[in-house]
Amino acid sequence: MLSELDRDCDIVPPLPIPLMRLLSLSEVCQLATVRPDQTPHLCLMRFTYAEGLLILTTQRDTEKFGNLQANPHVAAIFHDIKSVSVTVYGRLREEDDPERAERLRALHAKKNPAYLQFIVGDGIAVMSVDITRVRICNIDDKVTNWEKGMKV
Question: What is the C-alpha separation between 66 and 36, in angstroms, rounded?
Answer without folding.
Answer: 9
